[in-house]
Specification:
Blueprint: H1 9-16, E1 24-27, E2 33-40, E3 43-49, E4 72-73, E5 76-80, E6 86-89, E7 92-96
Parallel strand pairs: 3-4, 3-5, 5-7
Antiparallel strand pairs: 1-2, 2-3, 6-7
């Protein structure tokens, strides 16, 4: 299986095996990006997708950009290659790809 430039296997998995995701990519005027932002009942749920197994607190940093919006930020997740679920930062959890 080949992946195009700038893409990694977890992005392919999210499109092909998970199917339709009820969210969108987020990018603000400062260039802060979040891979997937799901909104339900006026609450924003941020999700990042990483191809690493080592958890890094910096992964949660883009989520805090949502706090300046007029909507509440719900719990966020970082889907990654970690072996188990574990906290990344306040209201942000690393979720192993095999859980999805």
């Amino acid at each position: 299986m080949r992946f195009g430039s700038g893409r990694h296997p977890l992005h392919f998995l999210s499109e092909q095996q998970i199917g339709y995701l009820p969210g969108r990519h987020y990018r603000d005027k400062d260039g802060v990006e979040i891979d997937l932002l799901i909104e339900k009942d006026n609450i924003l749920y941020p999700i990042e997708i990483k191809s690493a197994a080592s958890i890094k607190r910096v992964w949660a940093k883009p989520f805090y950009a949502l706090d300046k919006l007029d909507k509440k930020r719900g719990p966020g997740a970082v889907i990654c290659l970690a072996g188990r679920r574990q906290p990344v930062a306040d209201k942000v959890t690393a979720v192993p790809i095999h859980y999805v």
